[in-house]
Amino acid sequence: MIVLNKEVGEFLRRDKYANVRGADFNLFGHFNDFVRLTKSWENMEPDSYYGQSEAGMRYRRYSDFEYNPVTRDLKQLEHRAYVQSKANNSYVGGMVRHFQDFSDEIISSPVMRSLIDTDFEVYKNVLPPELHDEIWQCQIHQIRIEIKPGKQLEITPEGIHCDGYPFSGVHFWGRNNVEGAESRLYDTENQEHLASTTYQEILDTTYFLDRDMRHYVTPARNTHSHDMAYRQILAISFSRPGTAFDIVR
């Protein structure tokens, strides 16, 4: 079970984001489950829409779920494409992208389920109380970037952007031989730089109200002349279709 030991509600309400260190989380038991979940980044299908093949590759899983905050039940929905507008994603906006779905083994991981529950508890800090017990949709992206020796690539080739979710939690899950990859947040109107952090330890995390700001990750370079580099994240978002908390595409 994962427990967040830092109070982030005040930061999220005031700044619309909160950066959390991996050391602010505790894992109680389930160490073997944690290891198994970590290994799941090593067998994902390529993201064929990413480009930059001369420098590296992106691998990705993506699925939508129905989440009940009261019972903590998580129901995987039918496979669906991931579509963003050109306004939100100038790189692949308007393209119908299909990614590998999550397997039952990964999504039933006690570590994964605990992290989803933890993220919704964080989100409740900025939600009206009457929405705390409602059914939500949960969108999960699992991403691994691999970089060829001596090469550099764009982590977010779309540039400074918004994915349109009401709330997102981006959890770092490791890197090797990587230089750069600084995560940045910006003001929506003027793209004023608000905050930066460079993830180093597993579970270094940024919680943010995605629709209310923009984000970007600076280019990453492989510092090794012979070995591949990698960087891994897990992004968990919540939305309520057909309401004021829907995804803005």
UniProtKB/TrEMBL annotation:
Tree of life domain: Bacteria
Upper classification of the organism: Bacteria, Pseudomonadati, Pseudomonadota, Gammaproteobacteria, Pseudomonadales
Organism: Pseudomonas mandelii JR-1
Family matches, as InterPro entries: 2OG-Fe_dioxygenase
Protein name: Protein BsmA
GO molecular function: dioxygenase activity
